[in-house]
């Protein structure tokens, strides 16, 4: 397992999962959303086109998933016992990387969509608080 797979499996995926759980439960939503909105706004421009970094990570994960899928298609069952051990090790590693990248891509998309929806929610919440203040003052 390479450094990228370890970082993704033991760092990025648990972090994204914890972040999504915190957003879903509403714990420190305002503070977490400030960080997420910074991540979602981070972009760079190439040839006049704006590319956002956060969804680009999900696209990279999807490209990795496709390459791992082709690697799985090319594998064949060996007959030698030593080759069988290497085969099963490679098969396990490939499936693990496949699932880690799929999980990461799914979590990134969910966090991106949740962050976008929070903007609408924040506007409605602020208007509701203003209405409550006006009703209190009357």
From TrEMBL:
Annotated transmembrane regions: 52-70
Keywords, comma-separated and alphabetical: Membrane, Transmembrane, Transmembrane helix
Record's protein name: Endoplasmic reticulum transmembrane protein
């Amino acid at each position: 397992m390479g450094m990228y797979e370890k970082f993704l499996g033991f760092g990025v995926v648990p972090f994204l999962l914890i972040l999504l759980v915190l957003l879903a439960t509403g714990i420190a939503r305002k503070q977490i959303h400030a960080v997420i909105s910074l991540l979602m706004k981070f972009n760079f421009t190439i040839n006049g086109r704006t590319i956002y970094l956060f969804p680009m990570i999900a696209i990279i994960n999807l490209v990795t998933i496709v390459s791992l899928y082709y690697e799985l298609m090319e594998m064949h069952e060996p007959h030698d016992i030593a080759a069988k051990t290497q085969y099963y090790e490679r098969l396990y590693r490939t499936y693990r990387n496949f699932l880690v990248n799929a999980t990461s891509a799914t979590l990134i998309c969910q966090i991106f969509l949740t962050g976008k929806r929070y903007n609408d929610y924040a506007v409605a919440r602020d208007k509701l608080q203003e209405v409550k203040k006006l009703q209190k003052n009357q």
